[in-house]
Write a structure and sequence with these properties.
338 residues, Peroxidase, domain 2, 2 domains, two-stranded antiparallel ribbon, binds protoporphyrin IX containing FE
Length: 338
């Protein structure tokens, strides 16, 4: 099967949100309270992708980083107003997230008319090109703590047992881990996230001290892009070279050939179960990856869902906003105004 360009395939692959069978989330949740929400979000996402086709990667990553900490409750969108009260956004793993400006722009438009959806759906909706079938009704959280993000988000140097256990902690299994790592088929990474594999890997310090799990030719290419030391630390490198704006199963083909960029990608070969999924996905049609990725994204979207009386609904925004501002937090998330 041929590869899909990012624009339509993002919508396809992000069926995670569209296809959720989560009983407590409901399609049409905002049809009365904010009927124009979907069309506004669709329009803004379409416009953003036309201007910056690579925006899909950053948005996908925002979704992952939000979901792993207290579920996809948009707590990642909260800004701290005091140094003594850092939020998730301030945590080191979130330092280089991009795409907040787009979410803010959508929020600004939604705030003009009608009543508020909670911010979580906005961050989620912003990850797809919106359709009418995603169940809504998710409540946003009101707690955002930097140390939780640091503890719960997997590190690029994580080994397979740490990865499995961090995914298990949020109710995701080894298959989810492999499928969701497939998100690395799009986007860029800074050199500093993988130069530890290229130079002085074991601390020996000579020129051959490199990560043995990294394929030699790829290693040489990465070395040519990222010099040792700090000069190139913030240089961006395509995670799926030549295909980094295309959502396809090439990530698994690379990992299977020991060309995964991060230690966490390479680690997927270190366990019989995760390795078998990598090989299977590398050898399957894209359609298999799209279907299973969508299922895994639904699983991630359902981590610790707040519904009903948990969390807060859009209509309680003003009170919650005051509460949060008292605690030094500013609400950045999107809402429709009554
Ligand atoms: C399994 C554990 C994971 C680790 C250790 C990890 C780590 C990373 C790192 C270090 C970067 C580069 C960040 C930068 O340099 O700015 C990155 C980028 C990215 N990650 Fe992951 N990630 C993981 C899982 C996921 C998941 C589950 C998704 C989504 C389903 C995802 C989607 C992305 C995307 C799309 C980018 C590119 C972002 C951009 O272009 O700005 N990652 N990841």
């Amino acid at each position: 099967m041929g590869r899909l360009s990012l624009l339509p395939s993002l919508a396809l692959s992000l069926l995670f949100v569209l296809g959720s069978a989560e009983a407590q989330l409901r399609i049409g949740f905002y049809s009365k309270s904010c009927p124009q929400a979907e069309s506004i979000i669709t329009e803004e996402i379409d416009r953003a992708i036309r201007v910056a086709p690579s925006i899909g990667g950053p948005l996908l990553r925002i979704f992952f980083h939000d979901c792993f900490v207290r579920g996809c409750d948009a707590s990642l969108l909260l800004n701290s107003t005091s140094a003594s009260n850092p939020t998730e956004k301030d945590a080191r793993p979130n330092q280089f997230l991009r795409g907040f400006a787009l979410i803010d722009r959508i929020k600004a438009r939604l705030e003009r008319p009608a009543p508020p959806p909670s911010p979580a759906p906005i961050s989620l909706l912003s990850l797809r090109e919106t359709s009418c079938t995603r169940p809504h009704g998710r409540r946003d959280g009101s707690v955002s703590i930097d140390t939780e993000a640091l503890r719960l988000l997997p590190a690029f140097s994580a080994n397979i047992s740490t990865l499995k256990s961090q995914f298990d902690d949020v109710g995701l299994d080894s298959k989810d881990l492999v499928l969701l790592s497939g998100g690395h088929t799009i986007g860029n990474a800074h050199c500093f996230t993988f130069t530890g594999r290229l130079y002085n890997f074991s601390g020996r310090g000579d020129n051959s001290d490199t990560d043995p799990s990294l394929e030699r030719n790829y290693l040489a290419k990465l070395r040519a892009k990222c010099a040792q030391g700090t000069s190139d630390a913030l240089k961006l490198v395509e995670m799926d070279p030549g295909s980094f704006t295309t959502f396809d199963n090439s990530y698994f083909k690379l990992v299977a050939k020991r060309r995964g960029l991060f230690q966490s990608d390479a680690a997927l070969l270190d366990d019989a179960d995760t390795r078998s999924h990598v090989i299977r996905l590398a050898e399957s049609d894209n359609s298999v990856f799209f279907r299973e990725f969508a299922e895994a994204m639904v699983n991630m979207g359902n981590i610790a869902v707040l519904t009903g009386s948990q969390g807060r609904s859009g209509r309680t925004v003003p009170a919650s906003t005051r509460e949060r501002e008292k605690r030094g937090l500013i609400v950045l998330s999107a809402s429709c105004r009554e």
